[in-house]
Amino acid sequence: MPMKADPCSQPSLMHPDEAIIKLLDQVMPLDDSEMVQLPYALGRVLAEDLASSIDLPPFNNSAMDGYAFRFEDLANNEPLSLIGQSFAGHPFEGEAKPNTCVRIMTGAPVPVGYDTVQMQEKVIANEELISIEAPKAVGANIRYRGEEVKTGGKVLSSGTQIGAAEMGVLATIGTSQVRVSRQVKVAFFSTGDELRPVGSELAPGQIYDSNRYSIQGLLSRANVEWIDLGVIEDDPEAIRNAFRTAAARADMVLTSGGVSVGDADYTKQVLDEEGEISFWKLAIKPGKPFAFGRLGEAVFCGLPGNPVSSMVTFYKLVWPLINKMQGLPQAKPLQIQAQLKGCVRKHPGRVEYQRGILSHDEQGQAQVCITGGQGSGMLTSMSLANCFVILSQEQGDVADGSLVTVEPFNSVLC
């Protein structure tokens, strides 16, 4: 008996992989940049290559706590005389002499004339006489000046997103401010007379405006400058003014809802009048309706109204767009194979992004279970999940124990 097809599937639906290719072809990185102080550079994207103004490390230093000495003096097979110490920030100021050594701490400068360091656990100290036990070789345990980066050497490339490690690198070379790409500005709002602000009482037929908060969270994780225009009433002129305001202030205008063919509201009507918008039907679940185009100079993305659909289509389509506009390279998401715990119902016809919980058994084998109900309005399925279980367009039901493709949540979703 042939497997029943997805009732929402149609031959004309666009595969999400095809959609993202089309989207990326229609945007370019922003060409604006600005200088920011180092403490505010986290998450920003470098707009130029950065070279080091100093050698790294800036001087020969010890890789561990121990004793610095001349390797050739070990040939005498006699204890070395301790003549001083070198601490980080307080170097030894004397001169290296034959048959001597100095106590040295990790990171401290190696005195000129000494060429080897032995860790303290492999010496015998008898007051000021130090016996060195079997050092590896001349130069052991020394970090040499410039061995990491020499003055003028490139340390970070344009297009690098600044994370915690990059912050440390910039500080290491003494950089107090950096040139970064201007943040993408994204304006968003909700429409609907049924939407009420959180904290208020609900009348019959009303719901809380949750999508706007989910979108705000996603945009914050995406390191953009977001502009929340609130809830717009179901009135053509109010919606028109909101779109015009958003397009004038932002590089991208983002909405959720109002982009389905059968939507009984004014959003689609106003979009047709104000911009150059295409309305797509995607072979994706949750999701399917998506709108893309331009409102003046701004890019427009219209997400589905159901909460989970909105988040999934943002993750799959809008986030890569934002990355490109920020000047970041496109990275293929990490995907792994995991054993499915339990059965999954699916009709062929659309790519499904089911919400799952990825873990590992006692043998280290990756395993995943579905979070429960997968309805596009069940936002708790996103809250409980740490990954997507991706089921291909042709895939039908999946049996317990099968291997499935799992995509752990990225930094935007986790």
Shape, principal axes of CA atoms? elongated
Mean pLDDT: 92
Number of strands: 26
Q: Helical content, roughly?
A: 10-25%
Tally the helices: what do you get?
Answer: 7
Structure description:
There is one protein chain. The chain contains 7 helices and 26 strands. The protein has helices spanning 16-24, 164-172, 211-221, 236-249, 267-274, 307-326, 380-384, and strands at residues 33-37, 50-51, 61-62, 66-69, 80-86, 100-104, 116-119, 123-126, 129-132, 142-143, 154-156, 177-181, 185-191, 195-196, 207-208, 225-232, 252-256, 276-281, 284-285, 289-295, 298-303, 336-340, 351-360, 366-370, 387-391, 403-408. The protein has a 6-stranded mixed β-sheet with strand order 7-4-6-5-9-8, with no helix packed on it. A hairpin with a 2-residue loop joins strand 20 (289-295) and strand 21 (298-303). Helix 3 (211-221) packs parallel to helix 6.
Summarize the structure.
The protein is of the alpha/beta class and 414 residues long. Helices cover 18% and strands 30% of the residues. The chain contains seven helices and 26 strands.
Looking at this protein, list some descriptive labels:
single chain, about 425 residues, alpha/beta, six-stranded mixed beta sheet, 7 helices, 26 strands, about 20% helix, elongated
Give the topology, please.
Blueprint (H helix, E strand, L loop, with lengths): L15 H9 L8 E5 L12 E2 L9 E2 L3 E4 L10 E7 L13 E5 L11 E4 L3 E4 L2 E4 L9 E2 L10 E3 L7 H9 L4 E5 L3 E7 L3 E2 L10 E2 L2 H11 L3 E8 L3 H14 L2 E5 L10 H8 L1 E6 L2 E2 L3 E7 L2 E6 L3 H20 L9 E5 L10 E10 L5 E5 L9 H5 L2 E5 L11 E6 L6
Helix pairs in contact: 1-6, 3-6, 4-5
